[in-house]
Specification:
Blueprint: E1 6-8, H1 14-23, E2 29-30, H2 32-35, H3 42-51, E3 55-58, H4 64-74, E4 80-83, H5 89-102, H6 105-108, E5 112-115
Parallel strand pairs: 1-2, 1-3, 3-4, 4-5
InterPro entries: DUF5615
Domain DUF5615: 5-113
Protein name: DUF5615 domain-containing protein
Length: 117
Amino acid sequence: MTRVRFQADADLRQAIVIGAIRRQPGLDFRSANEARLESIKDLEVLAIAAQDARVLVTHDRRTMPTEFGQFIMTQTSSGVLILSQSLPISEVIAALILIWEASTAEEWINQIMSIPF
């Protein structure tokens, strides 16, 4: 059983990354800045997350689902989690910690999920 590791997309609010790590210090959540994802196309972002076995966490409901579908036709993804921007940050953080505690990295392979559903 491998723990879920997260990768923030460039559009994800940094407060989510900081807050999640503060609430759960054991959480492995790499910021977009750390991964140098600014101005990189979705397919390349998905490749970077997959290469590092990280679930990509994004707010991008517009293009990411289509790009994800194209990506998994030829490569394996570590998964994508799309978060609504309208949710309070505290709820998003609680959901991320629950995912980290209750699922494994293997369960996320080639999966995409939105919160709220």
